[in-house]
């Protein structure tokens, strides 16, 4: 019995330690705030020195950052932060969002479970850049999931939309306007009004695109 239990314990997948998560949060904040600019090498050695920890939690944190689209592995050069979007990529991203997300909002209004709906929160109107990035990620994820189509939820998650958007531009009015647009989407979903939810999501994505367009060259 004891050996069977030990065997089970040995087979469990190690969860990232608290230290790796702390490193992840610190480095993520530096990447999102552009303290570490896009397309820049991230050295395991210098991070370990700077944060006063061993290489193990740094490597674990970098794997988590890679899974979230913030860094990628480069041949023979360790890790680097993901490049900033150019204009063509921004156009493609928003064309895709406009095709998928208004439809997802309609379906969420029609089919989302009440318990999931209660998680849709508009939140603070003046959050920090980093906090709003997290909030917006979660808001759009919940709606995509609420649409009840795994392909929609998975393909949006894979794009790491918010990582790219929030490293493109900083303006406080962006978060405030977006929070009001989110409120309109939430109200329509709570009212189970598919037409209104679709229209409100379309308006939010079109306005987000308008707010970003001028900041991205090429
Ligand atoms: Zn949003």
* Residue share in helix: 55-70%
Determine the number of helices (DSSP H or I, runs of at least 4 residues).
11
- SS-derived structural category: mainly alpha
Radius of gyration: 20 Å
Query: Ions, cofactors, ligands: which are bound?
Result: zinc ion
In the CATH scheme, the class of the largest domain would be Mainly Alpha
What is the topology, as strand order, of the major beta sheet? 1-3-2
| CATH architecture title of the largest domain | Up-down Bundle
Strand content: under 5%
Describe the model.
There is one protein chain. The protein has helices spanning 2-11, 18-32, 44-51, 55-67, 87-111, 114-117, 129-146, 150-159, 161-166, 172-190, 194-213; strands at residues 41-42, 71-74, 78-81. With 218 residues, it is mainly α. It folds into 2 domains: 2-81, Winged helix-like DNA-binding domain superfamily/Winged helix DNA-binding domain (Arc Repressor Mutant, subunit A, Orthogonal Bundle), CATH 1.10.10.10; 87-213, Up-down Bundle (Four Helix Bundle (Hemerythrin (Met), subunit A)), CATH 1.20.120. It has a 3-stranded antiparallel beta sheet. The protein is globular, with a radius of gyration of 20 Å. The termini are far apart. Zinc ion is lined by residues 136, 139-140, 178, 182, 204.
Helices, strands, pairings?
Elements: H1 2-11, H2 18-32, E1 41-42, H3 44-51, H4 55-67, E2 71-74, E3 78-81, H5 87-111, H6 114-117, H7 129-146, H8 150-159, H9 161-166, H10 172-190, H11 194-213
Antiparallel strand pairs: 1-3, 2-3
Zinc ion binds next to helix 7 and helix 10.
